[in-house]
């Protein structure tokens, strides 16, 4: 999925004890004025990352047609997770893969890839997330993974699918380049979720109105929970997405669909998408690729995880 904002701003990406910080999202039109609207909770003013997670879009449920034209990525992984519907992924390394609820599409952009995502008009509900790659891995060869059989952890009050990382003694087969976790938690009662105290975590309600850490978490905002918790108390009925990871200490420049380290890198990525061949071509997409927006007049600066 792309950041399709016509005038994207530079994204500025300290942590300590457990906290309860509600991060409100903002609405973004995805794929044009007639397309669906997503709620973007990361990056946000003040809170830029949770572990290596640097981008969270939640969309639906609504009857809509997704059509995101070919666009580039560098320095990140895209995570596509659906609650309802289906989305077809195509990319410039030749991958063509439908993803459905309970399955994971994971694309590692590395040094550069382009992709497109489409669906017929149908009920769509899901999330798209990005994971920033650390310095030692951000030049890896671009590649794609599909995982249709993910581990499920069952306990009192919950059934949890391990999307990436490890949770409750189970480990996802998805490739991760930093210590992190992503879990969809289906709640039916009260549960005490085991989490790692060295990870910072955040929770996003996908449906229902569950309680997280003693307070109701409605659909919409992301609840940042900080570090230092060995368990998380949740209750009610509904679905939650729990993300977390070791705090990402590197400073990054995140602009449009690129994650880099300097203004010059971002400038070079944009020029390459406009004029070069690094990102390859997405075959069989009926339409033109996305045009890169103009760079801002101010110089892009590498930043930490919070402003």
TrEMBL record:
InterPro entries in the cross-refs: Pirin, Pirin_C_dom, Pirin_N_dom, RmlC-like_jellyroll, RmlC_Cupin_sf
One matching Pfam family: Pirin
Domain Pirin N-terminal: 39-131
Gene3D superfamilies linked to this entry: Jelly Rolls
Pirin C-terminal domain mapped to chain residues: 183-277
Signal peptide: none
The organism's place on the tree of life at top rank: Bacteria
Family the UniProt entry places it in: Belongs to the pirin family.
Name of the protein: Pirin family protein
């Amino acid at each position: 999925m792309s950041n399709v904002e016509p005038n994207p701003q530079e994204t500025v990406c300290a942590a300590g004890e457990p906290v309860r910080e509600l991060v409100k999202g903002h609405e973004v039109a995805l794929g044009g004025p007639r397309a669906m609207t997503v709620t973007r909770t990361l990056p946000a003013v003040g809170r830029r990352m949770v572990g290596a997670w640097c981008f969270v879009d939640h969309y639906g449920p609504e009857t809509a047609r997704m059509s995101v034209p070919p666009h580039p990525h560098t320095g990140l992984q895209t995570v596509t997770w659906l609650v309802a519907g289906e989305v077809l992924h195509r990319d410039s390394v030749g991958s063509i893969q439908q993803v459905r609820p309970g399955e994971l599409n994971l694309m590692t952009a590395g040094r550069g890839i382009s992709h497109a995502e489409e669906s017929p008009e149908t009920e769509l509900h899901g999330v798209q997330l990005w994971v920033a790659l650390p310095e030692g891995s951000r030049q890896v060869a671009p590649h794609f993974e599909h995982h249709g059989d993910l581990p499920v952890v069952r306990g009192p009050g919950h059934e949890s699918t391990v999307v990436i990382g490890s949770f409750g003694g189970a480990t996802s087969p998805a490739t991760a380049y930093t210590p992190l976790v992503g879990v969809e938690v289906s709640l039916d009662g009260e549960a005490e979720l085991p989490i790692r105290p060295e990870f910072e975590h955040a929770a996003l309600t996908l449906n229902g109105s569950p309680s997280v850490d003693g307070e109701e978490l409605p659909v919409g905002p992301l609840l940042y929970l900080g570090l230092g918790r060995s368990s998380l108390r949740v209750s009610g009925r509904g679905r939650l997405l729990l993300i977390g990871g070791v705090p990402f200490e590197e400073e990054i420049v995140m602009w449009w669909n690129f994650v880099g380290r300097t203004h010059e890198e971002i400038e070079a990525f944009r020029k390459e998408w406009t004029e070069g061949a690094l990102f390859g071509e997405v075959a069989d997409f009926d339409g033109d690729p996305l045009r890169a927006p103009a760079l801002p007049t101010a110089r892009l600066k590498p930043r930490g995880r919070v402003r």
